[in-house]
Specification:
2 domains; six-stranded parallel beta sheet; 10 strands; Beta Polymerase, domain 2; about 425 residues; four-stranded antiparallel beta sheet; alpha/beta; elongated; Rossmann fold
């Protein structure tokens, strides 16, 4: 049985592909069911963020599972196989484990050390558990991944400074505009990303922040908690007339801002530049908006290019995290091996002990003539013989657990000892 990861991320794929294979929380149960229904997939977890969509799966046949998951991606994004395969990457067994641990630590993020990814890994696992798609193998793997991510953040400085997409979006806007002091900023979306943007903005008390969200109660809650203004979605056009910066993070799959809306708004803004940062996946802003005079549009591709300049400051911490990841991969391997072998070894010993007890009982009348000390000697002899006979199979199972050879040994022992 192998653990595999197959997916696309910000390194392998342009935003136009990433947004087509993004899976929302609402669509996740259906996606997990589709994967779990595949013949070659035993367990599955889907991790879908603004930086990646990855499938972690347990399978007996890697190549067959790869084909199943590639087909899933094509169906998900309405992509042809030739459009997808150039962006798809895959890892299996130890490499897949290492990849997940690096993701959880923020090493594989566009913003190195970002904090948001650890919660996203946890949420992806929780949804898979609720759907029955993540069971023994992936439950163990993802528990270790979360422990690794927490350890990286507590033992190193990987998460210092600008460590989230939300904060990076604000920092990029501040750098390009010179300052956000006394600027008006409109946040469209009150989810996790929107809250991150709002928190980053409230660090400057002179920035005037407004929140607009499709669900007014959620937008109002965020605005009240952070001392911002809240406006309903019906007032979006009016809000755009009098703002300097817009950060959008809804990602609902349809454009919130398009050319038809923005063009007439810019015509009455008296030449004032409108700076828009779209950090949603799928995108909230039609790319044609960027061609309108007076509009400066940035999306996740631009943001990733910008944050690369800050990577050097965390390279030393990243090296420390890599050491932690290596240690945790080894710890997971030992834990996984022990868990795979232990139930079968216990069943084998229990079956042998049952035979020993049965034989002692069958010869009870003949043994009755012996003294208690002699009976104890016979029982000790029987236990010793049983232990010696099972010693080599036990050692071989432990040594080869988690490998194809181990699987073959386990299958043979199940048949030989009639273990179910």
């Amino acid at each position: 049985m192998s653990v595999v990861v197959i997916g696309v991320n910000h390194r392998t794929s342009p935003l136009r592909v990433l947004e087509r294979v993004a899976v929302s929380a609402e669509a996740m149960p259906k996606a997990l069911h589709a994967l779990s229904s595949k013949d070659n997939i035993r367990e599955a977890v889907v991790l879908s963020t603004c930086n990646r969509t990855e499938v972690y799966a347990v399978t007996e046949k890697f190549h067959a599972a790869y084909d199943d998951i590639a087909e899933f991606f094509c169906e998900l994004g309405g992509l042809r196989s030739d459009e997808l395969h150039q962006h798809l990457y895959s890892q299996h067994d130890d490499a897949a484990v290492r990849h997940l641990f690096e993701v959880a630590c923020g090493l594989d993020s566009a913003v190195i050390g970002e904090n948001e990814i650890l919660g996203q890994v946890r949420d992806a696992w929780s949804l898979a558990q609720e759907s029955g798609a993540s069971r023994t193998t992936l439950n163990l793997l993802f528990r270790h991944a979360l422990e690794t991510g927490k350890r990286a953040r507590s033992e190193t400085g990987i998460s210092r400074s600008t460590t989230s997409i939300s904060f990076a979006a604000v920092e990029m806007a501040r750098e390009l505009l010179g300052t956000l002091a006394y600027r008006k900023v409109l946040i469209i979306g009150a989810g996790t990303m929107g809250e991150g943007v709002a928190v980053a903005l409230t660090m400057n008390s002179t920035t005037e922040v407004t929140v607009i969200n499709r669900t007014e109660s959620r937008g109002r809650d965020l605005a009240e908690r952070l001392g911002a203004e809240m406006r309903p979605m019906s007032e979006l056009r009016a809000a755009l007339l009098d703002t300097d910066v817009v950060v959008t993070c809804i990602g609902a799959g349809s454009f919130v801002l398009d050319r038809e809306m923005i063009e007439p708004i810019m015509s009455v803004r008296s030449g004032r530049t409108l700076f828009i940062v779209d950090i949603a996946v799928p995108r909230d802003v039609d790319e044609s908006v960027g061609a309108i005079d007076g509009v400066e549009l940035r999306n996740l591709d631009d943001l990733r290019d910008w944050v690369r300049s800050g990577v050097e400051s965390r390279e030393g911490e990243a090296a420390k995290v890599s050491t932690i990841v290596s240690e945790e991969v080894e710890r997971y391997a030992l834990d996984s091996t022990a868990r795979q072998a232990a139930p079968l070894i216990a069943a084998m010993h229990a079956a042998a002990d049952e035979v020993r007890v049965s034989e002692m009982e069958r010869h009870a009348k003949r043994l009755a003539e012996l003294t208690p000390e002699q009976i104890e000697a016979v029982e000790s002899l029987a236990r010793g013989i049983t232990a010696k006979l099972l010693h080599e199979p036990t050692v071989r199972l432990k040594e080869n657990a988690g490998t194809p050879q181990g699987e073959r040994l386990a299958d043979a022992l199940r048949d030989l000892f009639d273990l179910h």
